[in-house]
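Below is how a single chain appears once it has passed through the pipeline. First comes the sequence as given, then the structure the pipeline wrote out for it. We keep one example in the README because the format questions we get most often are answered faster by looking than by reading.
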Amino acid sequence: MLTLLRWMSRWPLGLLHAVGAALGWTSYLASPTYRRRFDANAVQAGVARAQARPAIAEAGRLIAELPYLWLRPGDEPILEKVQWDRAELIVAAHAQRRGIVFLTPHMGCFEVTAQAYAERFGPTHGPISVMYRPARKLWLRELVDRSRNRANLAAVPATLAGVRQMMRALKRGEAVGLLPDQVPPDGMGVWAPFFGKPAYTMTLAARLAEQSGAVLLLAWGERLAHGAGYVIHLAPFDAGESADAAQAESAAAINRAMEGLIRQRPQQYLWGYDRYKTPRTVRIDTVDASTAGQKD
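Resulting structure:
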């Protein structure tokens, strides 16, 4: 499998996206469970079928572009395929010597946002740390670990140690990236509305920003047609009150911000993601950001 992925990493991005479109439609047509969830999530959001339909192919493109993003040669920069929308927001945060918490939904190409930041800003302003859950399969876990840890890009696990690592990075004025519409592990979130339906939502993002003084920015990577590359869109976000008593409101505010981004380009949202699932009770070290400054 790794040999196949390495071979595919040398394909033109346009070819990968063409194969991915076919993969997306095959998955949609072959899996009744996936198809029902995709359609139900779009309906819940009030998105017309004509608007959601292109997201079927986009979901496949998301998978097919991973060999290029993860396994392309180390000397091949991603910035050649990236345009920036409002990069001055990042520059302003750096000028204030503040860390940055990037909030990125399951929309477009979320892998490219961290890679592009690492290449453009990492050499002068330090690495970006992104939180992830290790894959269950050993070969995939090793591949993801190697691929997501690149120059000026560090992947940290969703554990106590990972949260502490992010807090230290923010206090150094560095950046971190989170997927706030990802269902967090049990105990790391609260129930908050997402397109009018309760969804278990992380509280970590607002807490990290509050306790480190970091700037919260919305970010997503728009996938351009015909393999033309990506546009990284940035927007400010005001977390408002995020004290312990207001966790639910902070989570709701983040969900509203994600909804706003998704409504701008529903054709590229991952509607098949199981956003409304109830998290399993898992044995995982979790922590409030309020304890993240303690020693391991």
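The longest helix spans residues 13-30.

See the next section for the split statistics.
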